[in-house]
Write a structure and sequence with these properties.
disordered C terminus, five-stranded parallel β-sheet, globular, alpha/beta, 7 helices, 46% helix, 191 residues, binds 4'-phosphopantetheine
Length: 191
């Protein structure tokens, strides 16, 4: 019998309850689902790819047919390497549709054998995005109920570290002017 393998590519910075909802739905219709974190060196992420992978692994530990991986390059090339037949993407609202359609059609143009499957997360997550989670957390708002508890903890840790730095604390062993002089040096070298 033919087994259907799908990849669920994304940035997941950080993974949210909306992502988890989609993973759960995907795990029910695909035989195998690989959650694939994009390694994108151009972005300035809140979490490293390794951190995101770990969070997703913990979040999906109870799903037997779900695994987590990282990739770079074209999504279609990665999907082919994995011998996947489908790309799973979530559509929360009409506003997602235009971008997702464009991406799905481009992926189809690049690799006609791959199908993009759109699924809708639960309505209660229709306003939820990683970008808003980051923004709310950075501005001191609560992200409980928006992300799994383990992610909330990690985000809070990040915010605490950022807050400490903003208040002048620095890692042990660093002289007060060390960081500054280094960056000045770097600037001087690059100009
Ligand atoms: O979670 P995101 O940021 O909406 O995910 C976007 C993602 C990773 C699916 C998209 O940027 C992507 O597929 N990037 C890999 C490079 C690629 O294949 N680009 C062509 C897409 S048509």
């Amino acid at each position: 019998m033919k087994r259907i393998k799908a990849i669920y590519p994304g940035s997941f910075d950080p993974p949210t309850n909306g992502h988890l909802d989609l993973i759960e739905r995907g795990s029910k219709i695909f035989d195998e689902l690989v959650v694939a974190v994009l390694r994108n060196p151009e972005k300035d992420p809140l979490f490293s790819v390794a951190d995101r992978r770990k969070m997703l692994e913990e979040m999906t530990a109870s799903f037997d047919n779900v695994s987590v991986d990282t990739f770079d390059g074209l999504t279609v090339d990665y999907a082919l390497r994995l011998e996947a037949q489908a790309i799973l993407r979530g559509i929360r609202a009409i506003s997602d549709y235009e971008y997702e359609l464009q991406m799905a059609l481009m992926n189809r143009k690049l690799q006609p054998t791959l199908e993009t499957v759109f699924m809708m997360p639960a309505e209660k997550y229709s306003y939820l995005s990683s970008r808003l989670v980051r923004e709310v957390a950075q501005l001191g708002g609560s992200i409980a109920c928006l992300v799994p508890e383990l992610v909330e903890r990690k985000v809070r840790e990040k915010m605490d570290i950022a807050h400490k730095f903003a208040n002048g604390d620095r890692p042990a062993g660093k002289a007060p002017s060390e960081g500054k002089s280094k960056s000045r040096k770097k600037k001087a070298q690059s100009t």
